[in-house]
Amino acid sequence: MKARIHLLLGSLGAALVAFALASPRVIAADKVDPVADAKAFQNFFFQKFPNVKHEDFVNGPYSMNEDMKRQWQEKEEFPPYEFALEAGKEMFSTPFKNGKTYADCFPNGGIGIRQNYPYFDSGEGKVITLELALNRCREANGEAPYSYIKDEMASLTAYMAYTSRGKLMDIKIPDDPRALAAYENGKRYFYTRRGQMNFSCASCHVQSPGERIRAETLAPALGILNAMPIYRSEWGGMGTTSRRFVTCNSQTRAVPLEPQSDEYRDVEYFLSYVANGLPISGPGARP
Amino acid sequence: MTAFLRKPALLAALALLAGAAIAPAGAQSTVAEGQKLAFDRGKGNCLTCHVIKGGDLPGTIGPELKDIKAKYPDRNELTAIIFDETKRNPQTMMPPFGRNRILTEQEIDAIVDFLQTL
After folding, report:
1. Quick one: which of A173, A143, A146, A135 has its CA closest to A266?
2. What's the angle, vertex CA A96, arms to CA A91 and CA A98, rounded to 5?
3. A107 alpha carbon, distance to own chain's centre
4. CB A276 within 8 Å of CB A170
5. How big is the A-B interface in CB pairs under 8 Å?
6. Is A165 helix (H, G, I), strand (E, B) or coil?
7. Which terminus of chain A has a smaller tally of CB atoms within 10 A, N or C?
């Protein structure tokens, strides 16, 4: 019995040594380089769609061809998100019961700052999204948090995006190994196949943007979050980034995560970072 | 005898035998069943990505499904593609219908029957 345990420990040791010897090579090959990633990511789309203006990628499927673009321009005359936008503006300027407002929770009073979210909080060691920051603001002021999916949260983020329209996405990855790990985790989630349909986010939004699934044109991943939140005809209403992630997962028969779970926050961090330099276009409207 | 019949394996074997015996007569109905499965959004949902004669609102991701018998004279090849195309092409968008139990083997078989008429 004793000899057996020794044998087991011995082989475990050998395996560990083998792993230790092999791993530096693997790490070197997979070294995380967000700057190079973002450049490669953007170039992939710029080359795949040479006729699409770079700043147009933030308009999702509407950037993919002239017909779609015309549809979008017509829609923008009476935008379906207008109601949410008005509501958001009013909510934003209405004080909490303690007399404070959302403006007190954000840099520059919350105006024109959408392009800086999500950011990595070095104190907490985690990614902080705009939706999360809004609910934390509410809770810090004694108010109940909102659902992350739609309604009030979509209205508030719609207003904050609107005041930031045209500003270029500007996500920072601080010199902190945890920030790099969060970015890498988001990237891994984005490219990993999952669910009964075996799709990754990239299957549709990197491999197949501009293609149609039935009558729906797939949006390019580049700049996809710059337009959030969106009014989606398919939803019959507004939805946040959280809603987008959850419905993408469930439509491909994968198990959705909790809105604002660490992994979703990391995906948002990755996707926003690789869209650096592209303008905020939210709130958006989608078929 | 009744005790025997309760055994699922035996029942399945009997069902298979019966199926094999009536195959020629049942071919027409499996083609119709295959088309239904291919167009059903909750089953094959092939139209999401492929143009298929007789189907509305096809997607554009996969190739048009036509001249199938000429392209795949061996039905086993067609069955394998539907069962798990990632084996042949790891980058494919096509869901592994058999491996991930989106369709049963019988359902895939019926869809193959239908595809061979295209």
Report:
1. A173
2. 165
3. 21
4. yes
5. 35
6. coil
7. N
- The DSSP output letter for A111 is T
Tell me: the pLDDT tens digits for B15-53?
A: 444 444 444 445 678 999 999 999 999 999 999 999 999
Interface of A with B in 203-222 (CB under 8 A): 203-204, 207-208, 211-215
End-to-end CA distance of chain A: 67
- Using the predicted structure, report yes or no on whether residue B7 has a pLDDT greater than 90: no
Under an 8 A CB cutoff, do A214 and B101 touch?
Answer: no
Integer Cα distance of A263 and A224 in angstroms:
18
- Cα(first)–Cα(last) distance of chain B, in Å? 45
Q: What angle do CA A191, A193, A195 make, to 5 degrees?
A: 140
- C-alpha distance from residue B104 to each of B12, B46, B79, B101, B116 (Å): 14, 15, 11, 6, 18
Confirm if A180 and A32 have CB atoms less than 8 A apart: yes
Parallel/antiparallel/unpaired status of strands A284-286 and A237-239: unpaired
- What's the pLDDT band for A78 if we cut at 50, 70, 90? confident
**Sign of the CA dihedral running A76, A82, A85, A86:** positive
Whole-number Å distance between alpha carbons of B72 and B87: 17
pLDDT at A102 over 50: yes
Cβ contact A171:A276 at 8 Å: yes
In which element (H, E) is residue B31 found?
helix B8-39
CA-wise closest residue to A163 among A122, A113, A199, A117: A113
Rounded CA gap, A223 and A230, in Å?
13
A212–B60: do the CB atoms touch at under 8 Å? yes
pLDDT tens sequence across B55-65:
999 999 999 99
